[in-house]
Design goal:
With 400 residues, the protein is an alpha/beta fold. Helix content is 44%, strand content 17%. It has a 9-stranded mixed β-sheet with strand order 5-8-6-7-4-1-2-3-12, with helices on both faces. The longest helix has 27 residues. It is globular.
């Protein structure tokens, strides 16, 4: 074999060892469900919204139907014509017993519009315990109890959750859910085993208001693309722990086209590359099927390479079954044929992530610098007001 053959052989074997370890972590995670907790402080849930993908009502409704004694939800949009406004008004009518507030404000704190939205909402938070949750998350009635519980330990500064992908319909959504379930979820579990968690996942972040203030508040995140990663890093730098809740939320993957899927995942991969360059580069070893295919082609279809390629396809298919069983997901067999395609697409995105710093986020085209900050046409200096600007804010249906 040539030097290239030896390199590809080593990477292929290493990839197989990684996936065996990842499946052990997945199996172990399934045996640790959330334990009931009596720590039930009043909570404010902040929900930044943008548009309606057709599933917004179902997702937000699960947050309004929590088995929790006292909580408030503050929804926010930047434009009163946003389709999400109608959805929130519907929820306010359907849940008059809940403390629900809608805030409309186009004030921009910095380059990250999600953080600007959250900052506009934060001025309407009544309680000291805050939960940030993305709009495409679907949860059960025990969600708040589970994610708030670790904060009873004062050494915990922040709680975050992993998430699983659920595809309502369509090939593109299925591929999106597979990326979450069969790459992100196992790799996050492996990472948590290798080193203490020092970052958060944007699906859910729970923290105390004083902890947020101690790291500079949301203002400290205003220009970062990976705001969740940055917040976790700032909290851990203060000597507080970032706790991973055993609760796994559902991320409803609604990809309308291959183009939207591609640019969505390219944003993820380029974000990962910027915030954790060494770890992300090493993650190339997780793409076992493409690596074994390259080894197969490099050696001229040798029997060793054919055996390794076959073993990786089988290992990844077994991995899909294991992850689906651990997460309680249906449809494991119907999309089994997509596993090699999904691995190939992920490998291509991994390669492309090193070929630029531009990403698309909703309707924005952004450039990210080497420190993870968003660069776009902004004023030379952004002044951060000391409290949310009242101009343009509209509140509807808040229960007093």
């Amino acid at each position: 074999m040539s030097n290239l053959d030896y390199l590809l052989f080593g990477l292929t074997v290493l990839s197989g060892l990684y996936w065996i370890g990842a499946l052990i972590c997945v199996s172990a995670s399934a045996r640790h469900p959330s334990a009931p907790s009596r720590f039930l402080p009043p909570v404010t849930v902040l929900k930044p919204l943008w548009s309606d993908d057709g599933r917004l009502y179902e997702n937000l409704r699960t947050f309004c139907d929590q088995d929790y004694p006292a909580y408030q939800i503050v929804f926010g949009v930047r434009d009163k014509a946003d389709p999400a406004v109608r959805v929130v008004h519907r929820l306010i009518r359907e849940f008059p017993q809940r403390d629900l507030t809608l805030v409309v404000s186009d004030h921009r704190l910095g380059a990250n519009l999600k953080i600007a939205n959250l900052w506009n909402l934060s001025g309407h938070a009544k309680y000291e315990t805050l939960v940030f949750a993305d709009s495409d998350m679907h949860v059960g009635p025990d969600y708040l109890r589970a994610v708030v519980a670790p904060l009873e330990d004062r050494s915990v500064g922040l709680v975050t959750c992993l998430y699983k992908g659920v595809a309502p319909t369509g090939l593109c959504s299925t591929l999106g859910a597979m990326f979450i379930n069969e790459w992100f979820y196992p790799s996050a579990l492996v990472g948590a085993k290798i080193e203490p968690l020092r970052h958060a996942f944007g699906a859910t972040i729970a923290c105390r208001r004083d902890v947020l203030a101690s790291v500079g508040g949301l203002e400290a995140l205003a220009d970062y693309l990976a705001d969740d990663y940055q917040l976790g890093w700032l909290v851990s730098r203060r000597g507080l722990r970032v706790a991973l809740s055993p609760y796994v939320v559902e991320n409803v993957a609604s990809e309308k086209s291959l183009a939207s899927l591609f640019f969505h995942e390219l944003r993820w991969t380029r974000t990962f590359r910027v915030v954790r360059p060494v770890s992300y580069f090493c993650s190339g070893v997780t793409y076992g099927i493409p690596l074994s295919l390259l080894f197969l082609l490099s050696t001229g279809l040798s029997r060793l390479a054919i055996g390794l390629f076959t073993a990786h396809v089988v290992l990844r298919c077994v991995g899909r079954v294991s992850v689906h069983r651990a997460l309680g997901l249906p449809g494991v067999w119907s999309s089994l044929w997509l596993v090699p395609i999904r691995d190939g697409l992920s490998f291509i995105l991994w390669v492309l992530s090193f070929m630029g710093r531009t990403v698309r986020w909703n309707d924005q085209r952004l450039r990210v610098d080497g420190e993870g900050r968003i660069r776009r046409d902004l004023p030379a200096a952004v002044e951060y007001p000391t409290q949310p600007v009242p101009l343009g804010i509209e509140i509807r249906g808040a229960k007093e």
